Amino acid sequence: MSRALRFAVTCLALVLLAGCSTVRFTYDNADAFIRWRVGQFLDLHDEAADELDERIDAFLRWHRTQALPKYARDADEAARRLARGLSREDLLWGYDTFVAQARESLRAAAERIAPMLDRLTPEQVQHIEQGIAEENRKFARENLRGSERERRERRAQRIIDRLEDWLGNLSKAQVERIRQYSERAPLIDELRDRDNKRLQADVLAIIRAREAQKRLAERMVNWEKGRDPAYAAARQASWHDFYTLLLDIDRMETREQRAQAVAQLRRYAEDFRMLAARASGGGL
Question: Less CB within 10 Å around the terminal CB: N or C of the chain?
Fold first, then answer.
């Protein structure tokens, strides 16, 4: 999906980040983070800035009441599946669930921000373009720089770090399996970069035409539309290989690793329920 104007899924990403002290603390500070991120793209002042704050607050109210109960349900289900041992069907369920949640949040956010986008001046649109360009440079620094070996090593380390957030320290065998995967799996970041830029160009065209209220939500939730078939095929093959890796790691898990991940998912589910109850007046 576009690296611009995606505060729609910021909350989803925030609450799923491992390593935070609690989901509640992270979520309670999501409004400030979203305002900061949006400010990197939208140059708004005075009444327009106040309006943006109101629209972000409206999105977060929607998210607490409509999205969080679903997150709680899905985190409980993920914990149940992980506790018994994962299958490829479980991983497909997890991916499909995440994508459905992302589409729902993207639509909600796009509908709320669109009226403001249709009133932007040419200078403000240029500010968005500059923000996107900086995001693209950041992506290139993190994913495209260096030799092929260096990129594969960075990918392996990212996977190790993410899994240790959930499982604790990995065994030597688990780390070696990850490194084998990273050595063999194709690097598709160039294709991914071109795909991001394709969607960015479409979103910018909508904003320049002042048609955000008519077209933005549908374009954002259908981010695959117009995707290069070569990238679509490479992406599908990449996910297949990554699922195989995760299943191998799952089979290698110790009892303690599995218990830690299951407990973390259950804590997330409880935090989601408490945040949703607070929004509806049912909790503190």
Answer: C
